[in-house]
Amino acid sequence: MSKKMISLNQLNKKELENILSNISKFKKNKYTNKYSGKVIGLLFEKFSTRTRLSFESAISKLGAYPLFINKNDTQLSRGESIAETARMFSLYMDTLIFRTNSHAKLVKFEDNSSIPVINALSDFEHPTQIISDIYTIKEYFNKKPLNKIKIVYVGDSNNIANSFAYAAMSLKLNMTFCCPNKYNKSIKKILKNNSSIDITDDLIYASSKADVIYTDVWTSMGMEKENKVRLKDFKNFQINAKIMSNTNKKSVFMHCLPAHINEEVTEEVINSQKSIIYKQAENKLFAAMAVIDYVLS
Ligand code: CP
Ligand code: NVA
After folding, report:
1. Looking at the chain, which terminus has fewer C-beta neighbours within 10 angstroms, N or C?
2. How high is the pLDDT of residue 195?
3. Does the C-beta of 128 come closer than 6 Å to ligand 2?
4. Phi and psi, residue 3, nearest 5°
């Protein structure tokens, strides 16, 4: 059976910890031809800079061939089903990296293919981003045990928050989610049986003594129609200098990017010394290598 990577719900603590420690190995030995002769497809229904480029680059560095598939050139765009496409792709490639507007499509693809499918972002999860970001947190705080680092996610309970919630449960992270009440449904559902992870709408309480403040856009791709309402609903959830001054002295600011500057985060904070956004972006390459290695090994 193929390894699973469409949801962090599919990975146990040990599997996640192994991937995290392999990221370090790939970061030290940047190039390896371990997967020479393999073909890895990339199918993206939504825009991407970091995820697409880091995966394409990771595939090349692993010695495999990155096959970018333009959906509009395939029969998918003329109505051929996901199930049939999955059966066909399984004949020609060894793994598919899929970014989609519908998590259900990923599930359908996985159910009908004989190759591993890596979720490169869906409307419900962004697992490879969170694996990479947890590695960045571990790397930055170096000797501090992961579960002693206070991580605060502020914003929408979107794909980033959902993957974080699954990882927080499995790795027993010291984590708080701070969302407007109207926008916390999805993480509330994921965390329903977990009393040790906080959900609040009080940003001053949540950010107090935080080691990591992580935020994401208020309006994710595909939700643009809600933008006006969301700008209003989230206006008190902006990460600014006042919020950062409420955190630990050695705290950091994180964002998966792309950011809507001066909405969820001020220009001052995202460009400050505390911001580790470029470390996050850089580590996506090594995380991509470790994730491919996980599904193919
Ligand atoms: N963080 C992230 O997934 O960025 P892209 O949308 O540019 O891939
Ligand atoms: N929540 C964002 C993440 C982008 C990487 C979105 O889905 O648009």
Report:
1. N
2. 82
3. no
4. -70, 155
